[in-house]
Amino acid sequence: MIGSGVFMLFGVIARRGAAGGVDADPVPQALVITGIVVAFSATAMAVALLLRLFKATGEATLAVSAPKDAGGDGDRS
Amino acid sequence: MSPATIFDIGLAVLVLGVAAWTILVRDTFAAVVSFVVYGLLVALVWVRLSAVDVALTEAAIGSGVTGMLLLGAAARLRPAEAGATPPSALICASAAGLCTLIAMGLAATTLILPDPAPTLAPAAMAGLPASGLGNPVTGVLFVYRALDTLLEKVVLVLALVGVWSLAADEEWGGTPEISATRQPDGILTFLAQLLPPVGIVLAIYMFWVGADHPGGAFQGGALLTAMWLLVLMAGVRTAPATGLVALRLVIVAGPVIFLAIGFAGFAWADGFLSYPAGYAKPLIVIAEAALTLSIGVTLGLLALGPRRCMASAPPPSWASGCSASSPARSCYAKFWPSM
Amino acid sequence: MASFLYAAAGLVLAMTALGLVRILCGPRNADRMAAAQLIGTCGVAILLLLATASKFQPIVDVALLLALLAAFASVAFVRGVDARGNRSEAEERK
Amino acid sequence: MTLGLDLFTVLAVSAGCLFFIAGTVGLLRFPDTLTRLHALTKADNLGLGLVVLGLLPQSAGMLGALKLVCVWLIAQVSSAVVSQVIAGAIRDKGHES
């Protein structure tokens, strides 16, 4: 969620950088496309980690000290 | 105010509302569904920001494939949800405070940009005619900032390695589990047989027009992923074993071909990742074709995750059921060769 | 003409907002999924209207992509429900 | 001629919007999940269909029009399948899910 917010700021910058006959600056756009794909791979990694934790311990939280949100995937998104 | 302005304001309010709801809601499933809707609305925002390439990527990856990944995780984690304790108020407050602070900082930076905002558009456009491409975003991805694109592919492959290494030892190289119960006459099978051909045509179209119009390897690859996952979810085909050499070859083919073209730049052009004059467009199209396939497979495998059986459950009996042969399989063999 | 199309897109967007209420309230997950489907179709309609209003044809491609992926999340949802069902059966057997 | 086509667009798109409103109201007001599914798929597809019909005269040439119709057809198929599948899930699970 935070990531896509930052991406949209990039979008605003791109739109304001319209010049040279294009509607929006292509450089931030290309960065955002790359960013979306990398964000997805990070999410996939995190979900795999969470599922492995769930499989190993039977719960989706790190029970030892800091209680983390079990629906972490929702937040992480 | 013109209707377009009112539309934009409404869209912005809606996006903020859905974002807030997604974060605040306690039920995991509700959060995931609103995240999917959020992705759709963000794609609309990108369209309004004249960034159609990004809108395509967001619609396919941000909303489609991520949604599927999170829905699967939500379904698997449901047993854990009941016993979960909500985080303490202090943690919530400090996280919210920190996020607000960062958001305000970023917004302020965006707002205080000088009025003719700094732009690299002229620089990016200057190199475009030489490459023979018509779409500035593809131009940036494959000419101006080709190194970023190459490294991103490497990140994808690394992420996949990471996801796979989370498999338990005895499951290493196994087939990713996907909950598919195949019903030969089922409506889902019908959909999984009807949509993918259309999707594949559209993916090729997107990769092809990517040279001159919005589209490209990422969007085409993500669409391929979605179609592949649809087929897997309907149980028309089974997922490939992650240990297969052919599968791994497909995954690395994209980056390797791109890298080879990059190194060829030393021999025939000015240096790494520079294209010889006149051959830029064909080379880019070749690299993009390989990348489309690689991205499609890698994203799909990332979404599938490692082979994962629930610790409490015996090997699912229906897992064998979905590999039962059927007429549909032979028809799909051309589209989905067993990798 | 463009103004009218923007206004129509705005109206459909308002319907999207109303559809969100169903995602918020549920009460069942199937309701949420149905609402998501409605919002998907609304999104396609909005994109088509915007494409014509702004005379920028590639937006239709986004609509095409969205229409193709509309079924995707719902199918994943049903699979998730099935996975749960299968697991509980497996636990019963134990 | 142009005026006629524009008028046609306005009428068809307005009618489409009306169906979108009807579908949303149905989704919000109908008493249970199955009737809500009924409301949204019927109304939604008709709504999208009318919007597409209305936009046809404005589209860029024959191919543009063909693309619009393709969008509608794909949406039609997936919407029909999805409502079937969701309804099936409800039937299998009873009132538990």
Can you walk through the features of this model?
The complex is a heterotetramer of chains A (77), B (339), C (94) and D (97). Chain A is mainly alpha-helical and 77 residues long. Chain A has helices at residues 2-16, 26-57, 72-76. Chain A has one domain. Chain A contains 3 helices and no strands. In chain A, helix 1 packs antiparallel against helix 2. The longest helix of chain B is centred in the N-terminal third of the chain and has 30 residues, at 52-81. The radius of gyration of chain D is 16 Å and the shape is elongated. The N and C termini of chain D lie far apart (55 Å). Chains A and B meet through helix 1, helix 2 and helix 3 of A and helix 1, helix 2, helix 3, helix 4 and helix 5 of B.
**Major sheet details of chain C:** none
Rg from Cα of chain B: 22 Å
Number of domains of chain B: 3
* Residue runs with pLDDT of under 50 for 5 or more positions of chain B: 308-339
Distance between the termini of chain C: 66 Å
**Helix count of chain C, per DSSP?**
3
Low-confidence runs of at least 5 consecutive residues of chain C: 84-94
Order of helices and strands of chain C: HHH
Structural class of chain B: mainly alpha
The number of helical runs of chain B is 14
Secondary structure blueprint with pairings:
The complex is a heterotetramer of chains A (77), B (339), C (94) and D (97).
Chain B lengths: L2 H22 L3 H21 L3 H30 L7 H23 L9 H6 L1 H4 L4 H9 L1 H20 L21 H23 L7 H18 L10 H24 L11 H25 L13 H4 L5 H6 L7
Chain C lengths: L1 H24 L3 H25 L4 H36 L1
Chain D lengths: L1 H28 L3 H23 L5 H33 L4
